Amino acid sequence: MTDRRSDTARARLALVPATAEAARPHRWFCNRCASPAAQPGTPPPFARACPACERGLLVEAAAELAPAPGDPFLLVDAGLSVAALSEAAAPLLGVAAQAAVGRPLGELLAPADAEAAGAGALAAAIAEAAAGAEPRRLTVRPVGVFGVRLSARIGVCGPPRAALFALD
Ligand SMILES: [Zn+2]
Q1: What distance in angstroms lies between residue 3's CA and the mean position of ligand 1's atoms?
Q2: Which of 42, 65, 121, 139 is at a distance of 20 to 30 A from 129, taking alpha carbons?
Q3: Residue 86 Cα, ligand 1 centroid: separation in angstroms?
Q4: Whole-prediction pTM
Q5: Ligand 1 centroid distance, CA of 14 (Å)
Q6: Would you say domain 5-167 falls under CATH 3.30.450.20?
Q7: Could you state, in order of their start, the residue ranges of all structural domains in the chain?
Q8: Is the pLDDT of residue 12 over 50?
Q9: In this predicted structure, what is the pLDDT of residue 19?
């Protein structure tokens, strides 16, 4: 709580991410195959099964961050476990998509820069994303694949609220 107006406005944006998120276009997509929702707008809770693969769940993210079908991406929950992994991400990370769900993210991805505070940098980026911070970019490396570097855009998606890693 500050009495400087601009600081107050900034703090409010940081503390109430829904306000900032509502200002940008959002898109619903399947958390498994990235197919878009069949209908525009927010799907009712009973209609959140993916109409394409029928095995994923429709979640929402900023349009600039939301993956398209065939894009490699993964969702990470607040406990730093993999909540979903796209088929395209599996070979990049050297894992089977189904086997990856529920595993700690640290077993699959690490920050690429050793000097970037190690695994703490990844955890911090996920915590920021899950709290609704602006999407950011981080270079990561698959733990099980030698010599590979991936650029990841990290932002919030949900519900349930999770960090979305869109891999390039
Ligand atoms: Zn799907």
Answers
A1: 48
A2: 42
A3: 9
A4: 0.81
A5: 32
A6: yes
A7: 5-167
A8: no
A9: 53
